[in-house]
Design a protein that fits this description.
Elements: H1 2-7, H2 10-13, E1 17-26, E2 36-46, E3 52-61, H3 72-78, H4 92-109, E4 114-119, H5 122-136, E5 143-150, H6 151-158, H7 164-170, H8 183-203, H9 210-218
Parallel strand pairs: 1-4, 4-5
Antiparallel strand pairs: 1-2, 2-3
């Protein structure tokens, strides 16, 4: 039983990486100059049979950092009013501090060595996350500095779709376009999509048992 449990772990499945699904809403495309306005993070867990599912969630509305640029067309697209007091926005430091703390605990609990960001068109979200982390000078950033799992690329391979809404629908996951472009909603759908893609690969027999793989390599 102990050997089987060791196989069915995030550490074993992803080479020591701890997947964390992230989505951001921003006031533009330039991570260095445009404001981060919303961020959500969902951790992933694996059951004792090796199936993935969403675990813990954090979501924050974020105050624009001092001097941040707010591109009007971006605000029209995502419908965010940065000056709305009902947003309950926090600073980048507060948001990332809590997210990083949750992620570091997950890494420790799962005996992984580093978090890896999972996102749809991951380079965009990763860029804004890293830029915000740099501005806040937070230490012990748990995320890999450049590696990501991109569900757009994975969906293109597995489902023949790269748009999040179309990928979800093709995978049998309900998607409400009126709720899209909310960091929390998009993160929830992306987490469900990532788990389905990995679980589908397992159902098809694509994930070789580590013991069998080791025997193949050593034979």
């Amino acid at each position: 039983m102990a050997e089987k449990d060791e196989v069915n772990t995030l550490r074993a499945r992803f080479r020591g990486f701890y997947p964390v699904v992230i989505d951001v809403e921003t006031a533009g495309f330039n991570a260095g100059t445009d404001a981060l306005l919303e961020i959500a993070a969902i951790t992933i867990k694996m059951d004792d049979k090796g199936w993935l599912k969403a675990d813990k969630t954090l979501h924050f509305h974020v105050e624009p950092f001092p001097g941040a640029i707010l591109q009007p067309e971006a605000l029209i697209f995502n419908g965010i009013d940065p000056d709305n007091p009902l947003r309950g926005a926090v600073t980048e430091h507060e948001a990332l501090h809590d997210i990083f703390r949750m992620v570091r605990k997950g890494i420790k609990d799962q005996k992984c060595h580093r978090a890896i960001l999972v996102a749809h068109n991951a380079a965009f979200d990763h860029g804004f996350l890293m830029a915000a982390a740099g501005r806040t000078s937070l230490k012990r950033n748990p995320f890999h500095p450049f590696a990501t799992f991109d569900t757009a690329a994975l969906s293109g391979l597995v489902l023949g779709q790269t748009v999040l809404a179309k990928a979800c629908i093709t995978a049998g996951i309900a998607f409400n376009n009126s709720e899209a472009h909310s960091a929390l909603y998009d993160t929830e759908r992306t987490a469900e999509l990532f788990c389905e893609l990995v679980n589908r690969w397992k159902r098809l027999g694509g994930w070789t048992d580590i013991r069998s793989l080791s025997n193949m390599i050593n034979s």
